[in-house]
Every structure is written in structure tokens, then in C-alpha cells.
Amino acid sequence: MRKHGWQLPYHPLQVVAIAVFLALGFAFYVFFMPFVCRKVLEYVVMGIYTSLATSVFCLYVWCAATNPGDPGVFKSKKYLMAKGNRKSCNFKDCREEAQVVTTSNKLLDDEIKIEATGDNRSQGIEKKTSEDGMFYCCLCEVEVRRHSKHCRVCDKCVDHFDHHCRWLNNCIGRKNYWKFFVLMISAILLVSTIFYCINSNQLIMY
């Protein structure tokens, strides 16, 4: 079970993203900035680029370091064992987890029995399950929220799962969705600033 995007092994696209970011930053300050025509404009562009680069760097680190897992996953036996560097969890945690799993299995068995007998009480159980908004994930072996989805890459359920980003090597969910959205906007503005400097240099050459 992966905790976050900085956990080994790194994805090749994650390494490429970091390398491209560093290369563009080096090229901007060394090759692009010195050839901007006006000194005042040079300071303005440099301030904008530095602010955007800092924002992209901080947001990238934050989004990759966030654990977007469902709150129920943090109580699962798999997560507790991974958190302890594959050491077994203590007796109390394991006992509580066993009780949660046993209760969930009993509810599932009751639903199956009631549906098989055609009892009208099945509607009441289905309604209770919907109101609680909790579902049992067989892969995580724990109860998770209704809008959570299991990511097979990270091997855990993610709260409000959107997608697994290979560039971040992490899932995008409720805990880092808006930060990821701002990261994408900042990255677009950063690239636009670089293209502006390239076009300015081309105009000076001609």
C-alpha cells in the first residue's frame, strides 16, 4: 500500500517532470532572461516567473506528499503494517480491526439471507446502509465512504477518487484536488511566461 507520491519506487514520469522543471528554470535564468530588451520589463518578468516557479514547486511537493486515502484506510490492518515498516500492528489495533471486519461481514451475510428469503426487511437494511454512507472494500478489508474508489496502483481506497497522476506518482482525491487544480494553472502560466521570453528573444534577433 502506497502512502504518498514520494514513496519508493518513483515513477519514470515523475523523474521526467522534476528534471524538465529544473532544466526550464536553468534555461530561463541563464539564456532567456538576459536577452529581454527592457531592464524594467526584465525585472517584472523575472518576478512573475519566480513567483510561479515557487508556487509550482511547493504545490507539486504538497500534492505528491499528501495521502489522499479514505479515512477508513488509516485504520486497516494493511495500512498499520505498512506504517510500521511492515511490522505487525499491536494487539489492540488488530482486535479493533477484527471487530470492524466481523461486523461488516455479519451485515453482508444478513443482507444476503434476507434477499434470499424475500423478507420485506431488506428495504430497511438497504436504507440504513445508504444513510450511513459506508461501504466495505474487500481489497482494503475495511469500511470506506460511498464516494471512495480503490486505486490498484496505490492499493488503497481514495476519498472522492478522481484519477491516479503518474507525473505526481500519487492519487488525486478530496485532500489534494484543489491544490492539484491550482498546480495545473500555475504550470500553464509558467510555460506561457517562458514562451513569452522566447518570442521576445526572437524579435530581438530579427
How is this fold's topology laid out?
Blueprint lengths: L11 H21 L6 H27 L11 H7 L7 H27 L4 H11 L1 E4 L4 E4 L3 E3 L4 E3 L4 E3 L4 E3 L4 H29 L1
Antiparallel strand pairs: 1-2, 3-4, 5-6
Helix pairs in contact: 2-6
Can you describe what's shown?
This protein has 2 domains: 1-68 and 163-206, no CATH class; 70-147, no CATH class. The protein has 6 helices and 6 strands; from the N terminus they run αααααββββββα. The protein has helices spanning 12-32, 39-65, 77-83, 91-117, 122-132, 177-205; strands at 134-137, 142-145, 149-151, 156-158, 163-165, 170-172. The radius of gyration is 25 Å and the shape is elongated.
Q: Sheet bearing the most strands, described?
A: 2 strands, antiparallel
Number of domain units = 2
Kindly estimate the percentage of residues that lie in beta strands according to DSSP: 5-15%
Shape: elongated
Q: Which structural category do the helix and sheet elements fall into?
A: mainly alpha
Unreliable runs, pLDDT <50, ≥5 residues?
86-98, 100-105, 111-131
Note the quaternary state here.
single chain
Total strands: 6
